[in-house]
Sequence to fold (158 residues):
Amino acid sequence: MGAQERDERIVELLEPVLAQSGLDLEGIELTPAGKRRVLRVTVDSDNGVDLDTIGDVTQEISNVLDSSDVMGQTPYVLEVTSPGAERLLTLPRHWRRSQGRLVKVDLAEGGKVNGRVVDSDEQGATLDVKGRSRTIAYADIAKAKVQVEFRRDNDAAD
Fold:
């Protein structure tokens, strides 16, 4: 079984398990680590993911993988995680979940836009860019990433 076929089988096994917990599968990554491998499963939901949910779903994922032959005989370590603070925005649901967050957008035709996500739909996102509204179609975005903010301007008033 090739790596792509294995990854597709893993996704097919995991998506129903995660859906039962209200989670989306954001990605899988299988990497060698000495004599073992590390399978990193990234999950998310509209409400975020807490540690209790990660713990519960890790056990469910482990059971599903162990009851199949998809991982073969080589030992592996399972890591289940949520997206990092500076996640890439690649799907409409990522934009929806990032409403109110500051993002940096690299445009496909060149240039960059920094703004706060005000709204989004299946075709694009609307950003507040220095007080002005700007809608950008996903097709016009080369790369978009959430920016880490330690203190927002309106937090200073609190």
